[in-house]
Amino acid sequence: MNPLKAGGTDYIYQPIISFSGVILGFELVTGVSENRSDSECYESSLTPDEKVKAFYEQVTLAGMNENIFIDNDFLLSINIDYDIAVHIVDNPSMHKVLKRYSHIRLEIDDNFPEFRTGQERPVLQALSECCPLWLDNFGAGFTSLSLIMNEKFEYIKISKTFFWQHQGTISLRKIIEHLRPYCDGVIINGVENSQHIEYLSGSNILAMQGALWVPYSQGEFIQSFF
């Protein structure tokens, strides 16, 4: 698979699949490899300016493919950290872009600084006025049900590590049931085989994401859905 290169960086589209097997949307990630952890290591090595530049490239791709997303009713999530979040909040032009592209979602990891106990959340609240937010990696240890109850997230993604540790258990089902009243749906990260899907059978989740589904390059994405 040959990922798209934009400004020297590769990007790929990772499918997000509903439990009924329908494509809900995609996460647009740095395609250092098909391994998410490699991508995360690459992103953590970037300077704030480089991260903002990469975000602009991702938004540009989202705009280029707008018709595909609208026509197929797909969503597109883009991961952002605090540096990118501050830049968005301080940039009125980006507010307009995000509001225009109704298929874009901003995905925030659970280690976002404003999630710490006792922190006010002006950046998070300003972001939520620009674009629907998703919470990524719930269960990794930095977020709590209290945060979920007090902030609005459209979808909540349960971390791969948490899912692997609790797959097939009552604990996982209870966590999902606790989250459901406070969001529009729960997505499970780390689904890699048919047994994982069996473990999730009967649980109140919206969708799944993981290595079970092959990601798309830009060319493959257009060929498949245009």
What does the model show?
The protein is an alpha/beta fold and 226 residues long. It has a single domain (4-225), classed as Alpha-Beta Barrel (TIM Barrel), CATH 3.20.20.450. It is 42% helix and 23% strand. It has 11 helices and 9 strands. It has an 8-stranded mixed barrel with strand order 2-3-4-5-6-7-8-9, surrounded by 4 helices. 35% of the residues are buried. Residues 1-8 have low confidence and may be disordered.
Sum this structure up briefly.
The chain has 226 residues and is α/β, with parallel strands linked by helices. The chain is built from 11 helices and 9 strands.
Chain-averaged pLDDT: 90
What is the CATH architecture term?
Alpha-Beta Barrel
Could you give a short account of the major beta sheet?
8 strands, mixed, barrel
End-to-end separation: 19 Å
Total count of helical runs of at least 4 residues: 11
Task: Based on Cα principal axes, name the global outline.
Answer: globular
Q: What's the count of strands?
A: 9
Assign the CATH class: Alpha Beta
Domain module tally: 1
Evaluate the radius of gyration: 17 Å
Order of helices and strands: EEEHHHEHHEHEHEHHEHEH
Structural class category: alpha/beta
CATH topology: TIM Barrel
Main sheet: strand order:
2-3-4-5-6-7-8-9
| The CATH H-level homologous superfamily | EAL domain
Percent in helix: 40-55%
- Low-pLDDT runs of 5+ residues are 1-8
DSSP strand content = 15-25%
Topology overview:
Blueprint: E1 4-6, E2 9-18, E3 23-30, H1 36-44, H2 48-64, H3 66-72, E4 75-80, H4 82-89, H5 92-100, E5 104-109, H6 122-128, E6 133-138, H7 145-150, E7 155-158, H8 160-166, H9 170-179, E8 185-189, H10 194-200, E9 207-209, H11 218-225
Parallel strand pairs: 3-4, 4-5, 5-6, 6-7, 7-8, 8-9
Antiparallel strand pairs: 1-2, 2-3, 2-9
Helix pairs in contact: 4-6
